[in-house]
Amino acid sequence: MALLASFLGLLFSSCTIYEDGPLFSLLSKKQRIANVWVAERVTDPNGNEITDSYSSWTWTFTEDGEATVSYKIVVDIVVHGTWNLLDNGAIFQLISNELLGQNIEEYDILRLTDKEFWVRAADGTVFRLKAK
Asked: Nearest Cα to 59, choosing from 49, 50, 51, 67?
């Protein structure tokens, strides 16, 4: 019995690559990312909450790698692009086609479920997104 418990513990610990889980999912990473997301909580690199700055933002990702980010500053802005997974799914890459050219950003994935998508930007900003 102890051998079975050890094997199962090793199996489930190897299923997750994300700091905040989940340990296991029946959905593929692409299926979990494919959703419409809104900011639940955003913190700057110092841990200060800046969620209000992202209250109008919506991130839409399709399973086939299409991405749309929309938000309102003074006018509605919609940015189209694509997304990829790198480093065995540990890194989320967002490639956006903006007015001044292509922009590539990479985020460490902290948590990925079909309802929660948490990422950390290169500058340390943490986005805790929830399914809309």
From this structure: 67
